[in-house]
Structure to design on (592 residues):
């Protein structure tokens, strides 16, 4: 089984320096890209079927193709690597940036070449200090070796790259909010359209891609689109950094073919549940995805199947709920996070999330009523897609709406027993 | 907090130190306009002073030639810009979902009793401030605690005392 994204990454292993990275095939993808036209490089990515790893699974080549090209198109164009990674339960981009910064940088240079960007930013959450240091170091090596800056490898292509550390706010991960944050403003999302590919940073064409998405690009340009397609299972292309946290025996992140069964993640790679614990449900791709349960274990872990089952693959990092934690408490914990991180721009999100939090707190204390439970069940619709300015609020209510579907008894028991049955 | 205002520092940026100004200038070179440097400038000042006072907000606004209201709006938006004094070390306890599932509350309670403070408070000797923090991206090693930029993984009650001792002067 090939694991291109983590080939240089291992426990206790220092990130490769430029020479080590190149000895393992590094920057070959970039050389291949620079030997062909930007359009041809973009076509390879389109053919590979690479889909965005930031949560939505949008085809990367297609996203890039919306950037205006040609002599009269606006300049400069920008490329941003989204390493905000504040989705609760997600810890994959940290591994990639800390473990192999050159892979991200190579991916960015190739992507910038394809879309005609001349300036790039690596946007990292504030806590990822080590990742930022390692990126700075790798960027310095690239500048010394003509891999960044003017006339990269004699190709005539110029690209500058900078690291930007966030100041902490989940909403910064949303791509238009991220753009406001990079401009030094409050990170409120922007209305779409115009999409960032047309008008983003300082009004110029901008592509925001997830760190993991960009890390795939060097391998695609090095080994070809067909090789990449064959890495995935069935119709899926490539590998994915899956992970699991919670009471499994060996929580972690693993690079596996896209489309492995959910069961493999929990039982094989996660080592099964810790002794004395049973799995009750799981969030498949971060804190803003709907719960699934034991009946979904044989589904392929890909965007389509998990979507059809009523959830989202999101970041592909499972959060396991065991039988000894209270589902109401778990949903409350998530809602608290989203209520705190709401940017406050629109009313349903700004006012709705604290109201949900209040009702869940009452329920958890054993002071809830049947009417309040009904009210609670109506909120996911009020905060659902189309009713708010960005996807934070619809995501925030996904755990609640699915918990009410699968674990309704637990909600009821809080009212019947006038206390939390889990103590 | 003592801020020495010497005459050679009074100019654009007022009380900002030459070091702070140098670091802000380095950032100005790769952004399109001054507003873009606002967050970095706040972080630079905080790195040197521990927190961002009203005077510093004004000094940054003055130096970047943007309004103080714009700087203040940004400063209050982001979680990790402190507008009140904090201890020499800030201890942040992850309170998000994976740490919750793994029972982080015992770690939180132990930290509170070890330090003798609640969330949002600073120890009397000014050494430590205790805050809750959102998911720190190390969920396979939950529960986690950060002390400034150091990440402590797989923390349980029994490890709390040693962690605190380690950072005591
Ligand atoms: C509230 C919110 C938070 C988000 N946080 C992140 C994040 O931390 N990292 C990320 O890559 N995408 C995040 N996204 C998705 C981005 O808006 C964007 O779709 C993504 O970076 C695109 O990258 P991709 O096309 O490579 O998947 C977030 C979206 C929302 C609505
Ligand atoms: S949904 Fe929430 S986070 Fe998104 S714009 Fe509205 S208030 Fe802000």
């Amino acid at each position: 089984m090939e694991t291109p994204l983590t080939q240089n990454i291992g426990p206790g292993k220092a990130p490769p320096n430029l020479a080590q990275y190149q000895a393992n095939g590094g920057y070959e993808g970039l050389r291949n890209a620079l030997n062909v036209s930007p359009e041809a490089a973009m076509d390879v990515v389109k053919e590979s079927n690479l889909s965005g790893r930031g949560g939505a699974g949008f085809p990367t080549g297609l996203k890039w193709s919306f950037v205006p090209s040609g002599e009269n198109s606006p300049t400069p164009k920008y490329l941003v690597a989204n390493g905000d990674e504040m989705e609760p339960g997600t810890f994959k981009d940290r591994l990639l940036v800390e473990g192999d910064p050159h892979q991200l940088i190579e991916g960015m240079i190739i992507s910038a070449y394809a879309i005609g960007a001349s300036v790039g930013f690596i946007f990292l959450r504030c806590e990822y200090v080590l990742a930022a240091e390692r990126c700075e170091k790798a960027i310095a090596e690239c500048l010394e070796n003509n891999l960044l800056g003017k006339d990269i490898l004699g190709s005539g292509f110029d690209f500058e790259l900078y690291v930007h550390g966030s100041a902490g706010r989940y909403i910064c991960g949303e791509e238009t909010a991220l753009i406001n944050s990079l401009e030094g403003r409050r990170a409120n999302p922007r209305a779409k359209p115009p999409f960032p590919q047309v008008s983003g940073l300082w009004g110029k064409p901008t592509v925001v891609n997830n760190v993991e998405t960009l890390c795939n690009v060097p391998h695609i340009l090095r080994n070809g689109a067909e090789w990449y397609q064959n890495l995935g299972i069935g119709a899926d292309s490539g590998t994915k950094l899956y992970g699991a946290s919670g009471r499994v025996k060996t929580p972690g992140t693993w690079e596996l073919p896209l489309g492995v069964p959910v069961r493999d993640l929990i039982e094989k790679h996660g080592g099964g549940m810790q002794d004395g614990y049973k799995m009750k449900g799981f969030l498949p791709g971060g804190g803003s995805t709907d719960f699934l349960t034991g009946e979904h274990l044989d589904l392929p872990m890909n965007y389509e199947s998990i979507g059809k089952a009523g959830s989202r693959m999101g970041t592909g990092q499972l959060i396991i709920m065991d039988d000894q934690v209270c589902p109401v408490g778990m949903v409350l914990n998530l809602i608290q996070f989203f209520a705190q991180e709401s940017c406050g721009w629109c009313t349903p999100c700004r006012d709705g999330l604290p109201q949900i939090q209040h009702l869940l707190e009452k329920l958890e204390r054993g002071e809830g009523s049947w009417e309040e439970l009904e009210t609670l069940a109506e909120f996911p619709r009020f905060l659902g897609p189309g009713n708010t300015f960005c996807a934070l609020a619809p995501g925030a209510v996904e755990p609640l709406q699915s918990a009410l579907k699968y674990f309704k008894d637990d909600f009821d028991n809080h009212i019947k027993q006038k206390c939390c049955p889990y103590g | 907090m003592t801020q020495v205002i010497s005459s050679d520092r009074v100019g654009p940026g007022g009380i900002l130190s030459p070091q702070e100004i140098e670091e802000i200038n380095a950032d100005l070179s790769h952004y399109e306009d001054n507003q873009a440097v606002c967050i970095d400038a706040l972080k630079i000042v905080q790195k040197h002073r521990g927190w961002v006072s009203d005077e510093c907000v004004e000094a940054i606004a003055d130096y970047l030639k943007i309004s103080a209201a714009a700087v203040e709006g940004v400063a209050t938006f982001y979680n990790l810009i402190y507008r009140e004094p904090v201890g020499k070390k800030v201890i942040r306890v992850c309170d998000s979902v994976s740490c919750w599932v793994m029972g982080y509350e015992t770690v939180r309670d132990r930290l509170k009793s070890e330090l003798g403070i609640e969330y949002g408070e600073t120890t009397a000797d000014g050494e430590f401030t205790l805050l809750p923090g959102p998911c720190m991206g190390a969920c396979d090693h939950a529960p986690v605690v950060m002390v400034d930029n150091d990440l402590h993984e797989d923390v349980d009650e029994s490890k709390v005392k040693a962690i605190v001792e380690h950072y005591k002067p």
